[in-house]
Amino acid sequence: MSTSHKLAKLAVSLEGTLLYDELNKILYSTDASAYRIFPVAAAIPKSEEDIVKIIQFATENNISITPRTAGTSLAGQTVGNGIIVDVSKHFTKIVSFDAINKTITVQPGVIRDELNIYLKPHGLFFGPNTSTSNRCMIGGMVGNNSSGTTSIRYGVTRDKVVELKAILSDGSTAIFKEISSAEFIEKTKGNSLESSIYKSIYEELSSTEQQVEIIKEFPKPEIHRRNTGYAVDLLLKSELFGGTEKTINLGQLLCGSEGTLAFTTEIKLKVDTLPPTNNVMVVAHFHTIQESLEAVVIAMKHHLYTCEMMDDTILNCTKTNREQAKNRFFIQGDPKAVIMLEVASHNSMEDAETQANELIADLEANNFGYALPKIYGADIDKINELRKAGLGLLGSIVGDNKAADSIEDTAVELSDLPNYIAEFSAMMERHGQSAIYYAHAGAGELHLRPVLNLKTKEGLHQFRNIATEVAILVKKYRGSLSGEHGDGIVRGEFLPFMIGEKNYELLKRIKKAFDPNAIFNIGKIVNASKMDENLRVEAGREEPDIKTIQNFSDSMGILRAAEKCNGSGDCRKLPSAGGSMCPSYRATRNEKDTTRARANALREYLTHSEKDNKFDHQELYKVFELCVSCKACASECPSNVDVSALKSEFLYQYQKANGFSWRNKAFAFNAKLNGLGSIAPKLTNFMVNLPIVKKTMGIASLRQVPHLAPQTFRKWYGKNWNQEPSDSFVNGKVCLFSDEFTNHYDVSVGIDAYELLTALGYEVILVDHEESGRAFISKGFLEEAKAVANKNVGIFSDFITADCPLIGIEPSAILTFRDEYIRLADDKERAVKLSKNVFTIEEFFKNEITTGKIKPSQFSEQPKTIKIHGHCHQKSLSTIEATFAMLNVPKNNSVTIYNSGCCGMAGSFGYEKEHYEISMQMGEDTLFPKIRATENNVQIAAAGTSCRHQIFDGTSRTALHPVTILRNCL
Questions:
Q1: Looking at the predicted structure, is the pLDDT value of residue 68 above 70?
Q2: What pLDDT shows up at residue 435?
Q3: Is the preceding peptide bond at 582 cis, omega within 30 degrees of 0?
Q4: CA–CA separation, 3 vs 10, rounded Å?
Q5: HEC sequence for 699-746
Q6: Which of 261, 433, 827, 918 is deepest in the core (most CB within 10 A)?
């Protein structure tokens, strides 16, 4: 029987899903590491019975199974050539909670931050805090023994594991928990696989010779953050093996085992009392890396809650990231490195302040740091978010030289840190390298990254040579080559050297005891794959030259734009984490619908397709289909992966080969069709909403096609243009962009904008111009979009200045000038210059409020309560704070902003019958429930025309454009 027939048979037997098509094998071939290994299939189990069946299948067919949650592993732990078993979708339950004993039992797919949301009302939290905490899952944290920023105060995941329920390689279930020595001996008796495991551990570790070897070769016990092979050194604490402890827990062995010993299905954790809320962060600025790490030794004498370091490479990457640029407010001067030192107190803010002052005094006394600012409150959270984005930010480095994961997880004893770094820096200098430094400095762990071009043979040689020399250096200090990221592929082959051959043979025997048929995550920890094989890129290969209609020179081409995705998985965060990325994943919880999947699939086909048109693949159409071009990834992805731009280029290239559908043509040329329909708007509105017409057009029956207004905004303007002398407009002149939505549908909003601006002393002019081209862009009609961009740039460049800016009502239309036009216009320099004086109407108002031209005295004092839903393009390319400032001008307005994500309409997307349900699900994720919970007397502000229609369709509430609300406040 062929493999595909066997997989089909397995698929039928599962309650969950088995994916073995080409696209999903591509998507599961990578994680957040540098590796690419194609699996046989990816399984999405729904039950433990499914996992047992998959284990049995793997045994019968002699293939490996690799457990996977969020796929954020940096060492290649979650890629393999067998079946990837993704438990992130269905194994997400909190099984039980004991508030009195401070324990909680969860399935492996529970997200760390979601767990803490559950625990917070009880005054508790799970301490280990990785940079991926808003999407990483407890199963992965156990597999890697994760730690993060809080380990110096709250320990690592292994410290929190009370009990693990696991399925063994024969399909039986075992519970690994703390037991007495007598109970351990009792478990060695019997014929089950579990008994055999206990017997093997007992026999292996009872050897005095083996105990001596472990103590001699394993990392120093003072290094708490260490993931070096299996944690057999910790088992030596038991009185069974020469230690003093009366109990033993083999769960410690499974923690950090990277899914190579058993398949964990439930995890019981100890949780802690919430940390103090009286916090002060001292951000110490340094001129050199060496000085910063020497200062850590002094700083750690204080009672710190975090001690984290970032170098200037990462800090400089924040300058070009739309989201993180806002969070670098604390930087003073041009530091080579900063260290974030947080103190806290359960007692009072005064106590925290005293601690901070003592810390500063100690650093100053030792001449450490040229600036030592203190940070408070919500600003601490902003700095922590910037630090968390560090890894992703490195992906935004343009070109083929990338921060390589090979030596990024070393840990040494804190007292050894300065000397270790001095030797490391000298070694890097010999290699002509300057590394990137990103560290949990207080724990002695450094995420060091050389910048290498792995597409070249020289870069590949350096990848191995640097890793080898660092292993030798770490061994010299009896450190750990992995502090928290695990051995995986990138460090696995160095284990015999790091712990000695005898200990390595012990690990192999332990693996054999747990997994005699070798099915669990083969090639990790023992018998590891080579660290410089199976990489995403191939050294020495001639890279394809991909021609595009858009200008991707900011990323050195579209392929490198896709390659910026390093797999960190920020796009898998859920609504509770805030932001909008990624609405399609939030709705489906499928890897296929992540930003990461789209970038990975595009990279794969652009690199390996043998077609002349490398975009011409149905798999790419599938992966891009549910992308709503919200542009959240353009700002929220720390690597600046703008999938909206990638999608529009893909659609253009794909449709060149496969044709443009009549429905896409109708949507793309909507503005021109509306021009015809406006001749007889009543008839048009009646016709397009007939069931037969909607069915023929492929429009969802439950949607109402928006009505054309009785007259266009341009016609209204022509009749009502105020021709008073220009000196009567005390605040100057503005040019209002008559976008295609305002002109045909939302004419009343255009009138409100005109009347509001003129009432406030502005002369409003309209000129003949093209539509924005938004519909052309979203449907991949890029030749038409390019023509529009060129015409509009030509029209407006001649007279738009700081004194006469171009302002727009519909965000998705006006922001094309700042975004897509830069990629489409033939004269990019001219387009960029024009964009500097193009604003959303909210941005314009905020600027004028700041200069004092618009004042509260110009508006009514009647109280109004307003809640704002921001358009996705505003959030990504502009700011919702501008809307907040605008609506807050009237003295008695009470304004708040919904944390509402994407509405899900996305232009024509939500009208298309096959996308209607997913569109509504996107709205249900955050926006609709918040709208329904809003009292009827509260006005809902939404700048996007699609957003307003979606809000009405989903909640029967009418939202108004902010301009209309402010106009009514005059």
A1: yes
A2: 78
A3: yes
A4: 10
A5: ECCCCCCCCCCCCCHHHHHHHHCCCCCHHHCCCCEEEEECCHHHHHCC
A6: 261
3-state secondary structure 439-505: EEHHHCEEEEECEECCCCHHHHHHHHHHHHHHHHHHHHCCCECCCCCCCCCCCHHHHHHHHCHHHHH
| pLDDT, tens digit (0-9, with 9 covering 90-100), for 92-130 | 999 999 999 999 999 999 999 999 999 999 999 999 988
**Is 396's pLDDT higher than 90?**
no
- Residue 75 tokens read as 């060492």
In this structure, which long-range contacts are made by residues 621-624, counting pairs with CB atoms below 8 Å and at least 24 apart in sequence?
A: 621/654, 622/23, 622/592, 623/23, 623/27, 623/592, 623/597, 623/598, 624/598, 624/650, 624/651
Q: What are phi and psi of 234, to 5 degrees?
A: -70, -30
Is 718 exposed, middle or buried (CB count within 10 Å of its CB: 0-12, 13-18, 19+)?
A: exposed
Number of Cβ within 10 Å of residue 739's Cβ equals 26
What percent of the chain clears pLDDT 70, i.e. is strictly above it? 99
Cβ contact 882:839 at 8 Å:
no
pLDDT at 17 over 90: yes
Q: 838-840 and 806-808: which strand pairing?
A: parallel
Question: Tokens 């043509």 label which residue?
Answer: 665
pTM of the prediction? 0.94
Determine how β-strand 374-375 pairs with β-strand 402-403: unpaired
Report the relative pairing of strands 272-273 and 247-248 from DSSP bridges: unpaired
Q: What is the mean pLDDT of the segment spanning 229-252?
A: 96
Are 557 and 546 in contact, with CB atoms under 8 Å apart?
Answer: yes
**Distance (Å) of CA 183 to CA 172, 231, 513, 516:** 20, 21, 19, 24
Q: How far apart are CA 442 and CA 413, in angstroms?
A: 10
Average pLDDT, the chain: 94
- The SS3 assignment for 310 reads strand
